[in-house]
UniProtKB/TrEMBL annotation:
Protein name: Aldo/keto reductase family oxidoreductase
UniProt entry keywords in alphabetical sequence: Oxidoreductase
Any one GO molecular-function label of the UniProt entry: oxidoreductase activity
Limits of the NADP-dependent oxidoreductase domain: 16-313
Enzyme class (EC, first level): oxidoreductase
The enzyme's E.C. designation: 1.-.-.-
Amino acid sequence: MTQSFVLQRTVPTSSRLVFGCMGLGGSWDAQPIGDQERRHAAAAVEAALEIGITLFDHADIYTLGKAEQVFGELLKQDPGLRERLLLQSKCGIRFADGSGPKRYDLSQDYILASVDGILQRLGTEYLDVLLLHRPDPLMEAEEIAEAWLKLKASGKVRQLGVSNMHSGQMALLQQTLPDPLVANQLEMSLLKHDWIENGTCFNDDQGKGSRVWSDTLQYCQQHGVQLQAWGALARGWYSGAAPQDAPAAVHATAALVQQLAAQHQVAAESLLLAWLLRHPAGIQPVIGTAHPGRIRACADALKVVLSREEWYQLYVSARGQELP
Ligand SMILES: NC(=O)c1ccc[n+]([C@@H]2O[C@H](COP(=O)([O-])OP(=O)(O)OC[C@H]3O[C@@H](n4cnc5c(N)ncnc54)[C@H](OP(=O)(O)O)[C@@H]3O)[C@@H](O)[C@H]2O)c1
């Protein structure tokens, strides 16, 4: 299996694993950041750096801006840190407010204003990667291209990507963009395996593949777009945190993960990530745990190369029935 991945071409210092910062900053409300949240964020970032992670994934909405804010405080305390890591953030989701319901907004004005807010909270002059968080039904490719040209010219953003978009939406945007979209961040894990189902079982009546996926995986592979997997650890469902009432296949798969992890002499978290890494698309898993012990448990993911048989054993166990 090749250990190379697509983002290395445009962002050479990116690590294969990405640290997801959604769990930093405390609660999703107006409660100010306290010392406990500061210590929590510092310990998580320290553990992530320790296992070699250089790319940190944010979004303007995470804990209502507090994730970026607390991260910005860490950058300020250690002036050399910004240049040792890469910052990615996202914009385009708006929560309900006085002017409307929860909605998606990829208008030029909103993108530009969001980026200014992100840079201000992080206390940095530039983002290495900006992702458009979700497709906005009202998005217009020309307007997005204009916003991108301004962000690029001002030096505020170095690379542009998307999240939760399918191939048709990406192709539409790419038509007017002067630069390639570098990444698409999607929910991909052993638990959320539509991305494989769709291509494997498309001609099967029982196939569970989501139509949303269509040929998105292949589009990204063909066009050199980095696939990033959010939810990569499946919220711990296969590594000790499955709810009692989870489907039988989840409990059986968690036991299988433990067994294979023991055989490979790694933690369950590393084994789970190795399953994503084994796919030839060169996926970048985004880990969302902020618990230092669980972050360190991901450290050996790149050392494990699952055999075809092990990979399929996990996939078939997770889907809960044999392949057609
Ligand atoms: N693009 C998008 O639309 C989108 C959507 C969601 C997330 N994301 C990004 O992807 C990252 C990861 O996504 P995620 O947070 O949904 O996924 P995840 O890594 O699968 O789940 C992490 C969450 O599960 C909890 N958890 C409890 N027990 C766990 C265990 N044994 N192992 C691992 N986690 C356990 C973690 O809490 P502890 O911190 O206590 O471990 C954390 O809240 C986010 O941080 C964010 O950067 C992107």
